[in-house]
Amino acid sequence: MASENPEHLPGSRWRRRHLLGLQELEKEEIAFLLDAADEITRCLEAGQDLPSLRGLTAVNLFIEPSTRTRVSFELAAKRLGASVLEIDQESSSIRKGETLKDTARNLEAMGADFLVLRHSAAGAAHFLADRVRSSVINAGDGAHEHPTQGLLDLLTIRRRLGRIEGVRVAIVGDILHSRVARSDIWGLRKLGAEVALVGPRTLLPEVFARFGVRLSNEFDPVLPWAQVMILLRIQHERQREGMFPSLGEYVSLYGLSEARLRRCPPEVLLMHPGPIERGVEIESELADGSSSVILDQVKSGVAVRMAIFAQLARFHQRDGEGV
Ligand code: CP
Fold first, then answer.
1. φ/ψ of residue 12, rounded to 5
2. Looking at residue 235, which CATH number applies to its domain?
């Protein structure tokens, strides 16, 4: 792992050069980033000064499709005054056979202070962090981690319920292929939430029990228990073979319907990282209904990413500039 400082004291200044995953963060560091995102939101709403990233450059290096994450990193960097460059698989020389490391080293040579990386390979962000001095931010690496999604999910729950500790959260669907599930599990467990994972046996390996979570192949018994329901898309693109007999059967067993919602606590929060496959993991009307906080998640994501840029910026301050 690159350039990590072992000091993670609460209230101290942020010490990490990169944001790679929630697995390696201490509980206090996660809480610190959530507090920083709340503070940024407060400043935005009060029209107060924000940390300045003027003179710094962020490169969004997205070698997999994205809407929410890519745009919110772009918005976050621009709102703090950084320059932002967008690179995707189609427009980069990776298509011509250039390695990820060479691409990153070239971007760094042109002055990239932040490399925001989305990649299909688990470990890609850690790999780059060991090879560049730019701050690497993991925007999703294969089925490994999606730490900023984990943070914005935590922030959304904390804002709605006032706490994470003791909150009962069900994560439902394609757990096997989900980096969001992994980051959510790390973050939720570290902050003291109870977590149940729900899905068919083929998409919910027993190994997840090691994370201190409850596993269930049945959705219905979990419904009255869950205060928060995080619904996941089936990642057809990552499945090498059919993982269940038919989509219809999956929907009947694991889709959130109006009838199932009626069996949940009345104040249950419905969450989804997006993109939603309407009518599969959730009925379309429920995704837009009064229990849904899906767009709150998206909104929280901009503040979380601004907070991360602001903390990592201290590694790239230049004379007369910076936070
Ligand atoms: N939640 C999420 O990662 O969405 P995108 O793939 O659109 O970025």
1. -80, 170
2. 3.40.50.1370
Q: Concatenated DSSP letters for 25-53? A: S-HHHHHHHHHHHHHHHHHHHHT------
Q: Residue 60: in which H helix or E strand, if any?
A: strand 57-62
Nearest CA-CA partner of 314 in 135, 192, 159? 135
Q: Closest ligand 1 atom, CA of 301?
A: 1
pLDDT at 321 (0 to 100): 53
Question: What domain range includes position 305?
Answer: 27-143+301-318
Does the CB atom of residue 68 touch ligand 1 within 6 A? yes
Q: Which amino acid is at 233?
A: R
pLDDT at 13 over 80: no
User: What's the mean pLDDT in 266-287?
Assistant: 97
Please indicate whether residue 220 or residue 11 has the higher confidence score (pLDDT).
220
Q: By C-alpha distance, which of 37, 287, 39, 246 is closest to 153?
A: 37
Q: How far is the CA of 10 from the centre of ligand 1 (A)?
A: 30
Q: How much distance in Å is there from the Cα of 193 to the middle of ligand 1?
A: 24
Largest CA distance in the chain: 62
Do the Cβ atoms of 122 and 141 come closer than 8 Å? yes
Measure the CA–CA gap between 317 and 303, rounded to whole angstroms: 21
**pLDDT tens profile 139-185:** 999 999 999 999 999 999 999 999 999 999 999 999 999 999 999 99
Examine residue 205 and say whether the peptide bond preceding it is cis (omega within 30 degrees of 0).
no
Same domain for 154 and 284, yes or no, is yes
Distance in angstroms (rounded) separating the CA atoms of residues 251 and 234: 11
